[in-house]
Amino acid sequence: WMKKPIPGVDKNNVSHASRMDGTATPECLKDGTGPESKYALSWANYFHSFLNAYKSHGIDIWAVTVQNAPVNVDAQWEGCAFSPSSEEEFIMHHLGPILRESYPDVNILVYDANREHAVEWMNYLWRDRNLDEKEENLGSDGDGDRINALDFMDGVAMQWYSDAKPSHMLDGALGTPNMHRVAEMAYFYQKRKEENMKKEEKEREKGLEEQETTKSYNLRHSSIDSTTTGIMDDNDSIMERMPILLDTEATHCSSTGYAIGDIDVSWYRAERNGHAILAQLAAGSNGWIEYNMVLDPIGGPNHVENFCDAPIVAVPHRAQSAVEFQLMPDFEHYQLKEGEVIMGEYETKFTLGSKMGYPPSYIDAGIVVQPMFYYTGHFSRYVRPGSTPLMALVGESPGGAISRTFRPVGKTSPGGGNNNNAREGIEVTVWPCEGSTRQHWTMANEQLQTYRLNGYGEQLCVTLRDSVDVSLGGILLTDCKADDAASFTVVTEPKTDSDEADVVKFMTTKRRANECLGIEPLANGGGAYGPRGGAQAVLLPCDHESAIWHYSSKTGEVVSQYFSWDGPETNSGVCLTTGWPFLQAGAFDTSGTTSAESDVVVVVLNESSDDANFVLATPTSGQRQPPTSLLKSSIPAHSIQTILL
Q1: CB under 8 Å to 494, separation ≥6 — which residues?
Q2: How far is the C-alpha of 60 from the C-alpha of 45, rounded, in Å?
Q3: I need a surface site. Which of 80, 268, 342, 644 has the fewest CB within 10 A?
Q4: Which is nearest to 377 in space by CA: 297, 279, 273?
Q5: What is the pLDDT of residues 277-312, one digit of tens each?
Q6: What pLDDT score was predicted for residue 207?
Q7: What b-and-e string marks burial along 108-123, b requiring 16 or more CB atoms within 10 Å of the CB?
Q8: Phi/psi of residue 215, nearest 5 degrees
Q9: Burial level of 569, CB count in 10 A (0-12/13-18/19+)?
Q10: What pTM was estimated for this model as a whole?
Q11: Are strands 107-114 and 155-159 parallel, antiparallel or unpaired?
């Protein structure tokens, strides 16, 4: 292979890796990725051959990523580690020039790993000195012309998995604030890039000495019409030319809903898809790719037993026309161990329909269509390519603190059902208050605690960690008995006549003095959710204005007025939240897309165990004017709706 020997796998003094799985770190390619590496050149030419092979069958590839999971160095499957610097070198000296010469329309996406480390990676690749094209960052194409790696980078790929091991319960739950950060970075990268081009253009117009030119290679996302005026003031115009931001991989592991045979698991996975797609598109992602469309009953075939779920499970042996089909296909090398069963095989098609939501008619055709197919379909059918997100957020009820979406008038206990977000590793955020268990906190043992119920009805207590996660940029939840659990002293602040709850600061006692619980606003203004849709809880100096909270021991709400505004009949506070609220929504302008069924699409998601009433409204021009109501409706528990306008 073209890879370096892998320590612990290959014998000493071996020149090349003996296997394709695993990788040497921090870079895997033999002889590195510099301009003289024949192995890096061979690997880039393999991309070219891959594209040729598909083209010979009439299939045009839209984009490639440089490497799947370049930071996942412990994977048991085929892998190749890159660092930001080696990926930059590989693109600049090899992959970029080769693909631009023969496949100029194929996009090259960088990174392609978990969102945790995307900011660090792109801070390097989009660093300022690279934009300024200093000599140490440039390569040569062999003719003496300068090549900048940025000339070949069309976008960023990110995956939804979590670094937390071994549980996959956090997949799709973490890192959306990092998508906001990368989107903001992409905007300012594009803006500065075009400002530099304008500057160079003006210098040429003034008759200054012609500077050394950069070879074009039919570049995209880097050239602008010199006749365009006011482009630097046109933010929307810049956003249209920003690098591509794409969610490239998402799947639920391990096994399939069909094999597990638990409707709660199957529906939970569908809801996680719905939440993640809504959140990522609102944050700035340009699209979403489901890892698998169809898999076998256990989530394969997979040669390393990394079995995961898919919207559709193939069960050809259950089709009405089945003759000699068997439970596991011949190409699945894994054999069920003694006592290991696929639960769906022990149910009739009718019980699968009633217990799991699998339509029996499809089982007769040899496929199991799982709930996540329909949840994802609310986006793939109605939010067509070319759609753009609109500002949309589920706000609080007009009644304010006395009447929440899931806590009616006269009640103090939260609604919504079991809070399955109350688990270690979930991000602590703030959202408009909904009166649910996801926003319910108890001050006990100097901790802000919340809990979920396990399958035995036992309360599992979680609380805030005593530090901000370096990669994710906010506070995460941890076990109440963990060493990293935060301890707070509640410092009472003066109340006003209108304050029903106590006005407090939560001062940490385990870290440096004068540090309190506060809020870190989302980058890019919060995207389509705005600033109140998921800002992160952090630790800040206690004199910071976001360190003031309103805490009610009766309702368990921890409310901040940090984002307050003078909207009519509106309580614009935000509540401390475990991850995200039960009730979510997203809106999209689809008027300019092909095969669109409406001008505007609104997707509403309810993850709670209670029905929810809502009013769909649009802002009215003019200050202090109430919004215009478009629709009054409700959404059942654990369901998703699409509204076409």
Answers
A1: 503
A2: 17
A3: 644
A4: 273
A5: 999 999 999 999 999 999 999 999 998 889 999 999
A6: 66
A7: bbbbbbbbbbbbebbe
A8: -60, 140
A9: exposed
A10: 0.92
A11: parallel
